[in-house]
Specification:
The chain is an alpha/beta fold. 44% of the residues lie in helices and 13% in strands. It is built from 16 helices and ten strands. The longest helix is centred in the last third of the chain and has 16 residues. The N terminus is likely disordered. The structure holds pyridoxal-5'-phosphate. The site of pyridoxal-5'-phosphate (PLP) has 18 residues, from helix 10 and helix 14.
Length: 373
């Protein structure tokens, strides 16, 4: 960032520049815009050499593509939703909103609640009862959002908040809000800025499909700006029990342990299909077993803890690698959309629980010797 840009940023209260400051020339803001930020973005892009070796071993070969993990769990509220929310809340405040509302599988509400708190505006969140991870609910509550749990699923919650926004004069901050997609484009820009070019393939989970839409628009914006020529093939993955785009029809009662992508009627369905087709990519499904396997692999092989929905990207990578079609080569990025600590119950349920022993050296030493080292 140039020093000129720095002088133009009204809301830079120290620390690293927000994505709106860094990428303002691609975003619908002016110099007068007061930026509501928690210093989101600039997340790690981690070369996954152990995962590469693992992929090779699956086929008994040493060669595998270069794999990078874009770790969105490192955002302020622990998911990529912050990239879109800084834009949505910034614009809502600029337009004089009286309050914001969203439906959420968890991370949207956590992010909306945090940014609304920072902007000192009311935030209402409507969640599917019993279907969101505890960590996410804890966040929304702590940030002072008014949380309403409906006896229904995400798709029903979204229908309700669309009507509520319209009739009660609140700003909708689901990804139907175009500013959300605008902000989320920044993930593609960061990947290109780090790699010096677009990757050959970009894998990511697909739920309401705003993020795959944003990834594609981000790469397109950089191409229009002359920053890249080639764009990646986008490889989107839904959970098998919640795979409307793959099936080509709505799923009335979507099921998956990956609650963040438990969506039966994606709001950005058409633009996701366009992103798939224009990029020459695919949107396919992976089972919950594959998701849990990938979830554990990323954590144990690379030291990167992402939530189950995020692991759908790596599960999709493994599946595509094994099936050999399309042929994976060059550089591959997997977006890991959210932090593993969001859903600790799932982690405990899918890992070996600690052994309990007496509080003396001999008992602990015996346990250490019993374990393979
Ligand atoms: C929101 C979310 C998704 C799905 O993103 P969409 O834009 O709805 O497709 C995936 N993973 C996590 C962790 C999320 O919070």
């Amino acid at each position: 960032m140039s020093s000129v840009d720095a002088k133009l940023s009204p809301a830079r209260d120290g620390g690293k520049p927000s994505i709106i400051e860094r990428y303002r020339r691609y975003l619908p803001v002016t110099e007068k815009t007061c930026i509501i930020s928690l210093q989101e973005g600039d997340t790690p892009l981690i070369r996954a050499r152990n995962l590469e070796r693992y992929l090779g071993s699956l086929k008994g070969t040493l060669s595998s593509p270069e794999v990078y993990l874009k770790y969105e769990g490192a955002n302020p509220t622990g998911s990529f939703k912050d990239r879109g929310m800084t834009m949505a809340i910034t614009k809502a405040v600029e337009e004089g909103t009286t309050g914001v509302i969203c439906a959420s599988t968890g991370n949207t509400s956590a992010s909306a609640a945090a940014y609304a708190a920072r902007a000192s505006i009311p935030c209402f969140v409507v969640i599917p009862q019993g279907k969101i991870a505890m960590g996410k609910l804890a966040q929304a509550v702590m940030h002072g959002a008014r949380v309403i749990a409906v006896r229904g699923n995400f798709d029903q919650a979204l229908t309700i908040v669309r009507e509520a926004a319209e009739r009660l004069g609140l700003t909708l901050v689901n990804s139907l809000n175009p500013y959300r997609i605008d902000g989320q484009m920044s993930v593609a820009w960061e990947v290109v800025d780090a790699l010096g070019a677009a990757p050959e393939f970009h894998f990511l989970p697909v739920g309401n499909a705003g993020n795959i839409t944003a990834h594609w628009r981000g790469y397109n914006a950089y191409r229009s700006a002359g920053k890249i020529q080639a764009r990646p093939r986008l490889m989107g993955f839904q959970a098998a029990g919640s795979a409307p785009i793959v099936l080509g029809h709505r799923v009335e009662d979507p099921q998956t342990i990956a609650t963040a992508i438990r969506i039966g009627n994606p709001a950005s369905w058409q633009s996701a299909v366009a992103a798939r087709d224009e990029s020459g990519g695919i949107i396919d499904k992976v089972t919950d077993d594959q998701i849990v396997e990938a979830y554990r692999l990323i954590a144990s092989l690379e030291g990167v803890f992402a939530e189950p929905a995020s692991a759908a990207s790596v599960a999709g990578l493994i599946q595509t690698w094994l099936c050999g079609e399309p042929k994976l080569e060059g550089r591959i990025v997997c977006t890991l959309t959210g932090h593993g600590l969001k859903d600790p119950e799932r982690a405990i349920a899918s890992a070996v629980v600690p052994t309990e022993v007496d509080a003396d050296f001999a008992a602990v030493a015996r346990e250490i010797e019993n374990r393979e080292r």
